[in-house]
Amino acid sequence: MSKIGMETMRRFCIRLDRCAIAGGILGVASAGLLGQMPTKDAQLAGATMASEQEPASASLAGLEAGLRLDLEAHPDSAPLLYQLGQVLRLENRPRESLEIYTQAARLQKPDAEQLRSAALNYVLLDDYKDAIHWLEVAASLYPHQADILYSLGRCYYSQSRFHDAETMFLAVLQIEPKHLKAEENLGLIYGLVDNQPEQAEAALRKTVEWAGDGTKDEWPFLDLGNFLLDHGRAAEAVPFLERAASIAARCVACHEQLGRAFVAAKNATSGIKELEIASQLAPDNPQIHFELGRAYREAGALDKSRAEFQRSQLLYGQHSSN
């Protein structure tokens, strides 16, 4: 794979969704759920990984307290246990969530969303082998549930199983023809793995169109901007990266890539401004300091350039020693 492709893939892999409502099983507790696998379709509850929103920490703590109080009165309520498992997952407590989901599964067979949630708990635990296993089980039971297929595609991608990921995303689009995240991921695969830049650009432009003016998701614009920048079209990339940065003002990658695009488009002053914002948001990121050094050099600020290159080298050395 080219250097350009590797850098874009690095940025993408960081993005694997870990923000979905989830529950499931862990370790010896897995036997409890295995014995109670569902045998017929249950209606999927909830939205896709991409559209789920995490409540604030205070709200989650309140929800947990309320559910635990209700469970004192109704300890055998499977719906309450499933809800508690979801809240614990969102509180980044996957092992506790897995235990609660196992209790719930002993009382009531999990539906499609609950099986998917089990796998996503494994994603939080960085156990993609079990995550993929449970998503494959869920997909075999619920082959027409777009959320399950999408989540499985994401996990395949994270494990470099790109052909399998492509198959899943295409299947999602058969079910939901305007599934923005599936189309977006296809564009990334076409560009990174299949070396089909025309198809990649078409898919990424489609996701920008589908996202629309009111979106709060910066990634369609960031992905298309990255694609154009990586293919030597910096001036075309700028408006998309500006849109991404305007949507997510604290997005390090948005400001970093916009800064790189400005510099490549011979606008070092604007590039420096964006890269300085990125370095303030992520002061220990050596790559950003390196890019800022290049921008200062382009602007003729050689002392600042040398200082940024030295800072970058120091941080790279600290990272390698760690």
At CATH level 3, the topology of the domain at 220-322 is: Serine Threonine Protein Phosphatase 5, Tetratricopeptide repeat
Work out the helicity level. over 70%
Succession of helices and strands: HHHHHHHHHHHHHHHHH
Count every beta strand, where a strand is a DSSP E run of 2 or more residues.
0
- Strand residue percentage: under 5%
Which CATH architecture of the domain at 220-322 would you pick? Alpha Horseshoe
Structure, described:
With 322 residues, the protein is mainly α. The longest helix is centred in the C-terminal third of the chain and has 20 residues, at 302-321. The model is unreliable at 1-52 (pLDDT under 50). It is built from 17 helices and no strands. Among the domains are: 19-38 and 57-125, Serine Threonine Protein Phosphatase 5, Tetratricopeptide repeat, CATH 1.25.40; 220-322, Serine Threonine Protein Phosphatase 5, Tetratricopeptide repeat (Alpha Horseshoe), CATH 1.25.40.
Descriptive tags:
globular, Serine Threonine Protein Phosphatase 5, Tetratricopeptide repeat, disordered N terminus, mainly alpha, 17 helices, 71% helix
In short:
The protein is mainly α. Among the domains are: 19-38 and 57-125, Serine Threonine Protein Phosphatase 5, Tetratricopeptide repeat; 220-322, Serine Threonine Protein Phosphatase 5, Tetratricopeptide repeat, CATH 1.25.40.
